[in-house]
Amino acid sequence: MNQTLRPSDPPRPASPPRPLAVEKGTRSGGAIREVAIGLVAMIAVIAVYVPLGLAGFFHWMVANGVLFTALWCIPRRWWPWLFAGAVLARTINGVAISITSGVPGDFMLYWPGPLQFVLDNLLEPFLLATGVILLQHWRVFPKDAMNLESMTRIHLATAVSALAVVSKDLVYALIDGRVGDMRLAQVIDIAPLAGPSVLAMLAAYLLKNFLGNFIGCILIVPLGAWIDEPAHYSPSKPIITSAIRYLLPTMALYLVLSLSRPGSNLGELLRLLLMVAVVVFAMRHGWRGAALSVLVASIAIAVEEHVGLPVYTPIRLQMFIAITGAMALLFGAAIDDMRRGTALLRQANAQAAVLTSQLHASALRNLQAEERERRRLAADLHDEFGQNLTALQTHLKLAQRDFIASGRSAVVDNLLELTRNMRRNIGSVLESLRPAALDELGLYASIERGQIRRLVEEAGLAFASHLEGDARLLSMLAPVHRNAAYRVVQEAVTNVVRHARASRCEVRLRINLRNDAIWLFIHVSDDGIGGVDGMRANNGLTNISDRVVALSGALKLADQHPGLRVHALIRQPFAEFE
Length: 578
Known about the structure:
By secondary structure, the chain is an alpha+beta fold.
């Protein structure tokens, strides 16, 4: 809070300036911490990259997948340290491979020359970063929820990085004039680019390197996102437990069977079963289960290949891992999307159910308030206007002799007729506000013998009513449900009389007990000219629908040709019986 000095207050001493040495010390301390963290990151890259590079081979380049994942998960200000660590690790690997293979090079014991060193060591980490930059441009980050769209973009980005690395490999092979492979820190299958099959040889080399980088990335990147972001941890324990119980024994069985029958067709069947296991695990545990199962399956196939007993060529095995891995990861992401959508839909349905219940309760309260108001108005009309009209009629009859004696009998006759009309009109209003027969006779009898029958017969229509089901349940209807049922019949019959031009009208009630609730079905039918289309614009239908919906019911109209049938359902929970 700002404070203002009063004239009598002594001046406040100014804050002493911060010493320049302190500011320099703070900056230098921060720079030292930055360098220390960067060195730790560089050493970590070297510690992970070197063993993976020595144990790997061109068609399973997990080391590049680790670097791709680190670039994706770590802020860009640390990228120079990651690049430096990768370059040093690749240099160490090159020297180690040269020593173990006995194939020394002219430059730093492994590379034929400085250009090859730049292409192979300095350039490759930066080329891998192209896919990471593309992911960041697409706003796909490890902290985000992994869905089908983000998983698809991860596959596209890893393919872009693999393509960039392969483009460099093409230049390297053309300059070096030969191609080769690597397995367990050994350079193998060196062949010069010469002869009629040079294009096929070069295409196979590039395809193998592309698939190797692509597989290395899709194996590690989802796992990196899973480990890097705590939001992806839950639920991790069931996935890991399921992998230990089912996935690892399955992969062990695969290795035992495939290595026990080398060169047989059993391997093809086992790989199909392996793919089924990966897909089932992805379906059960989503993209995280897919990432774990694909990694375990690829390790099993890599062990088989390192032993030297595969039936298929390396490219065919690569295609198997790449297709199985991509399919499983995309399928797992789609499963997670579906589960999230199902959870949101379930939540929305629960909220809708709560809102529906609240709306139903509110509508029921409004309907009860309306019935109370109708009852009050009917009582006021009956007590006030009825008594006044009776008193008026009495005074007119007492004064009738005087009017006759004075020769003005017509005046008193007109006044008496007017009071009789007023009584009839008030009676009609009272009947519409609060049917007396409904309280005296009950629901069905008030329809069968009350105002509704008189309305139909006075209009010249034949009237029939039927009651089906357990009639005892009618007495269990709450007043608001009984009144609403009567109003529904009244509105429907009124529509028949006024608009249908029918010759008959039929009312059918069916009541029974279902699922701890009283179900009252109301059917009103006629043989007139009215149809569903003409009924929908009628105000009476709105009144019927409002009452039915307020009581957890339903309303349906159906053409009879000729005529129209109105179906209404009113439900009352058995607990609401009063």
